[in-house]
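Give me structure tokens for this 340-residue protein.
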Amino acid sequence: MPHSLVTLANPAPRADRLVRAVEDGLILPDGPVTVLRPAAGELFDPIERSRLRMVQGYKPDYDALMQAGYSVSVAPESAPSVLVCLPRAKDHAHRLIAQAASLAGQMVLVDGQKTDGIDSIWKALRARAPVESLSKSHGKLVWFDPRGVDFSDWATGAQDVQTEFGPMATAPGLFSADEVDPASKMLAEVLPPELPARMADFGAGWGYLSAAILSRSGPEVLHLVEAEHDALACARRNITDPRAQFHWADTTGFMLPDSLGGIVMNPPFHVGRDARPELGLAFISAAAQALGTRGQLWLVANRHLPYAKVLEDRFVHLSVLAEDTRFRVWHAKQPRRGKR
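Here you go.
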């Protein structure tokens, strides 16, 4: 479930639009500028870095922004102006804009590429408030005064997905927010009735596979490792079993003091629209490092992904537990030491 590896954004388009808008007469209110969901590597010229208050819940981007010297948090604060870096999911975009409108004292700015759906957002905003906009670099910057504008219908929060373990909370913008992911469901169905005592769910998302793990006999502790803060917050609501421990972390670099007996995962293989199979490969390497000498890995992935060789390189025993035209479930045992 999606995370890992820093999202290396093209730094130019957003800064290009902001610079042109200021040159054309845009005047930002004095004071801090809260920026919702900025990606690592982005530029925000001509806004002074000292004014920027970054809000990012994706741990790799959060860490990269911190390392770049920005003020970063997971909880937004009110500010005279709030800039929304438009996400791809429409319901997530609506929620962020509603949040920005509630936080901004004078101005909301929304910036995104055409491929992110900025044109449809611009049209929807024009129907609610007087807006100004600038088009450049295959995208658009839109700004407006949010005072007196009602966005309550866009302020969607947690929602429930029905599962065999009962209703589970999700949120807009999360992976598989509307239904159980079919690959995860296939993996859950073939997990053995008994699992090792020390377990982890790498890329736990909102907790569906964790619920499946805890429904088996054997686990004494389960580590839920998730890079998306909103997803982990949902998992905390969904998994109330005292055996669960929650970690907001980049799975690819995550390690515990003691080795694990088993890991279950449905690793991501996209960053935004870009296919990044190296994400899954990094998850496999992290799992091999985290498991003990007799450790076991249960992994589901799209059939076309090139995971077989690295699994064979990293584990002594490898088998396929289930597959169909779309997905394959691997069971790997006994990680090879000395491999990285």
